[in-house]
């Protein structure tokens, strides 16, 4: 990856060819990166375009620059992966957000399932800002062109219904699945363009949840004979899907 720094901004921060960055990016540019007028950064307005910007004025709370080139970002995966990750304690959920973003997940849905230890809407609302920052930083660092979305938390049963209504191709890694691998499920699904993944919490999904998922057309799959931690499973399943569907090539 090139060492030029990348910043996601709001579209209204670009006016014609002039760009204004506020906090905390001004602090990052001035005090952390110690950049100077004439230095270049890339800004992204979440449209899929990226703008190479030459810095003009670097103040404490505001940085101004001028767009010198506009180009299409080419690092978004063709395959759209949505990760329904059951809420996890401590930093584990953040790990899944960060690594999922690096890999190319387009959307994260906090999932509330039977065995979730933490699991109310409030838990997510209190952390939303922090989680969005983790996603943005991972997206900037990894060169993403579009910020992954952080959706509202949903109950397991609602997630099943939503997926069925949308006709989404969905897989649910489940330790109880003894026959079908993720690779086989993807092949049987005709290498779909968009895939939803459901990952359980620390204590896993219950048998009842696995049955419910199947009734709604969600395919239970195995990730092999070793039990992965929940945050590992989400990241690994995302990587396998992106790899199998050809999105991990130069
Ligand atoms: N119930 C397990 C741990 C759950 S692992 C126990 O305590 O023994 C957390 C989640 O990761 C699971 O719900 C599942 O979605 C996924 N997972 C982990 N390892 C897996 C594997 N080998 N196959 C399929 N899913 C797996």
Overview of this protein structure:
With 250 residues, this protein is α/β, with parallel strands linked by helices. 34% of the residues lie in helices and 26% in strands. Strands 7, 8, 9, 10, 11, 12 and 13 form a seven-stranded parallel beta sheet that branches. Helix 2 links the parallel strand 7 and strand 8. Helix 2 packs parallel to helix 3 and helix 2 packs parallel to helix 7. The radius of gyration is 20 Å and the shape is elongated. Bound molecules: S-adenosyl-L-homocysteine (SAH).
Give a quick rundown of the structure.
The chain has 250 residues and is an alpha/beta fold. Helix content is 34%, strand content 26%.
Number of strands: 13
Low-pLDDT parts are: none
The helix tally amounts to: 7
Largest sheet: 7 strands, parallel
Rg over CA atoms, rounded to whole Å, is 20 Å
Order of helices and strands: EEEHEEEEHEHEEHEHEHEH
Bound molecules: S-adenosyl-L-homocysteine
- How large is the share of residues in beta strands? 25-35%
Average pLDDT, rounded to a whole number, is 96
List keywords for this structure.
binds S-adenosyl-L-homocysteine, alpha/beta, 26% strand, 7-stranded parallel sheet, elongated, 250 residues, 13 strands, 6-stranded mixed sheet
């Amino acid at each position: 990856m090139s060492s030029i720094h990348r910043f996601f901004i709001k579209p209204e921060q670009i006016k014609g060819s002039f760009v204004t960055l506020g906090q905390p990016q001004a602090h990052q540019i001035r005090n952390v990166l110690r950049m100077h007028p004439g230095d270049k950064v890339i800004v992204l307005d979440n449209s899929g375009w990226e703008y190479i910007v030459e810095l003009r004025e670097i103040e404490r709370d505001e940085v101004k620059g001028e767009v010198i080139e506009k180009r299409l970002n080419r690092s978004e995966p063709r395959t759209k992966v949505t990760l329904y990750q059951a809420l996890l304690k401590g930093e584990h959920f953040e790990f899944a957000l960060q690594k999922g973003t690096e890999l190319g997940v387009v959307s994260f849905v906090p999932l509330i399932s039977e065995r979730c230890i933490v699991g109310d809407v409030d838990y997510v609302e209190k952390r939303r800002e922090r989680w969005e920052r983790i996603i943005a930083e991972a997206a900037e660092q990894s060169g993403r062109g579009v910020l992954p979305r952080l959706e509202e938390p949903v109950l397991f049963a609602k997630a099943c219904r939503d997926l069925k209504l949308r006709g989404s191709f969905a897989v649910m890694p489940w330790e109880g699945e003894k026959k079908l691998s993720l690779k086989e499920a993807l092949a049987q699904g005709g290498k779909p363009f968009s895939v939803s993944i459901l990952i359980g919490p620390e204590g896993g999904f219950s048998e009842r949840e696995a049955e419910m998922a199947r009734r709604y057309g969600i395919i239970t799959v195995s990730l092999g004979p070793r039990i992965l931690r929940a945050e590992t499973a989400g990241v690994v399943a995302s990587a396998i899907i992106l790899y199998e569907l050809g999105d991990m090539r130069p």
